[in-house]
């Protein structure tokens, strides 16, 4: 590639990988979490629309439950989505990390910036997505949206016996702690290297980049980007959607 044809960060195309292959055990029995309805629409469709709402995002790769790729393709076909965005569906894996890796492997070469976004965070506002992309375009290899904590956090040691109280061993300084959300944004080469190098299971992609010794920066997250994990989160999600409908005058 000549120097003239090499993309600058500002021109680099952006793809989003949406891991949606989880079962949703903490949500309780039912369909895979991403396929459960919020206000009559599958959670996954809300998440896809939230990412495709960003003018930066040109491709969305949905990582479907391992035996659910055909169902997810039909869902994408059945719901209105922006014309300017391309969509791909690939089957996922046993862990979130494996599902993200499978999504990354499906990315065509022209995408230099990758967002990884949980299907379980269906209501992330577009301004949060854009802020993450802009921070990567400004040169950060890895960016996380993050919020200060409302609760004090304690570190505990294992209880002496199951069911016994856990001894508290430390209280980390709260002002320096953040609750991390998605989409997390990456320079693609950095994220690919992280997934190739880190073999132990981690709960987010940015921590793999930290393990490479590369900088990760935090931008402001949003309270509506919360993760639907337990049954009460569904109640909150429905309330947020009802508030949006009211604000939009529906
Ligand atoms: N094998 C997996 C496990 C999780 N995920 C995705 O990773 C995101 C965050 O995971 P989480 O909220 O933990 O979802 P689940 O694994 O479905 O939840 P649980 O742990 O309660 O089963 C979700 O969008 C989920 O679909 C995935 O793509 N592949
Ligand atoms: C990636 C993540 O959403 C950042 O908070 C989170 O780590 C996912 O965790 P989960 O246990 O897979 O829900």
Automatic annotation (TrEMBL):
Q: What is this enzyme's catalytic activity, as reactions?
A: 2-C-methyl-D-erythritol 4-phosphate + CTP + H(+) = 4-CDP-2-C-methyl-D-erythritol + diphosphate
User: What's the stated role of this polypeptide?
Assistant: Catalyzes the formation of 4-diphosphocytidyl-2-C-methyl-D-erythritol from CTP and 2-C-methyl-D-erythritol 4-phosphate (MEP).
Cite the position(s) of the site with description Transition state stabilizer: 26, 33
- Stored PANTHER family: 2-C-METHYL-D-ERYTHRITOL 4-PHOSPHATE CYTIDYLYLTRANSFERASE, CHLOROPLASTIC
Mention one GO molecular function: 2-C-methyl-D-erythritol 4-phosphate cytidylyltransferase activity
Site (described: Positions MEP for the nucleophilic attack): 174, 227
UniProt organism field:
Streptomyces tricolor
Q: What UniProt keywords apply to this chain's record, in alphabetical order?
A: Isoprene biosynthesis, Nucleotidyltransferase, Transferase
| Pfam families the record matches | IspD (PF01128)
Name assigned to this protein = 2-C-methyl-D-erythritol 4-phosphate cytidylyltransferase
Q: Which InterPro entries match?
A: IspD (IPR001228), IspD/TarI (IPR034683), IspD/TarI_cytidylyltransf_bact (IPR050088), ISPD_synthase_CS (IPR018294), Nucleotide-diphossugar_trans (IPR029044)
Which major enzyme category is it? Answer: transferase
EC number per UniProt = 2.7.7.60
Sorted alphabetically, which NCBIfam families does this protein's record hold?
A: ispD (TIGR00453)
What protein family is recorded?
Belongs to the IspD/TarI cytidylyltransferase family. IspD subfamily.
- Pathway it belongs to? Isoprenoid biosynthesis; isopentenyl diphosphate biosynthesis via DXP pathway; isopentenyl diphosphate from 1-deoxy-D-xylulose 5-phosphate: step 2/6
């Amino acid at each position: 590639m000549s120097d003239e044809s090499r993309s600058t960060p500002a021109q680099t195309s952006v793809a989003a990988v949406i891991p949606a292959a989880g079962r949703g055990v903490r949500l309780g029995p039912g369909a895979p979490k991403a396929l459960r309805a919020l206000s009559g629409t599958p959670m996954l469709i809300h998440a896809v629309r939230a990412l495709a709402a960003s003018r930066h995002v040109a491709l969305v790769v949905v990582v479907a439950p391992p035996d659910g790729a055909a169902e997810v393709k039909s869902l994408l076909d059945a719901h209105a989505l922006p014309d300017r965005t391309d969509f791909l569906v690939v089957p996922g894996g046993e862990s979130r990390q494996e599902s993200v890796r499978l999504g990354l492997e499906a990315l065509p070469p022209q995408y230099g910036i990758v967002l990884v976004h949980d299907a379980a965070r269906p209501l992330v506002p577009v301004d949060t997505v854009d802020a993450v992309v802009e921070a990567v375009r400004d040169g950060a290899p890895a960016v996380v949206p993050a919020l200060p904590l409302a609760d004090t956090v304690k570190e505990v040691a294992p209880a002496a016996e199951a069911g016994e109280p856990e001894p508290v061993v430390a209280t980390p300084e709260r002002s320096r702690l953040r609750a991390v959300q998605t989409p997390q944004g990456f320079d693609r080469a950095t994220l690919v290297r992280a997934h190739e190098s880190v073999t132990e299971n981690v709960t987010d992609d940015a921590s793999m980049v930290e393990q490479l010794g590369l900088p990760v920066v935090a931008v402001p997250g949003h309270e509506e980007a919360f993760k639907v994990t337990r049954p009460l989160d569904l109640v909150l999600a429905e309330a947020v959607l009802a508030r949006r409908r009211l604000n939009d005058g529906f």
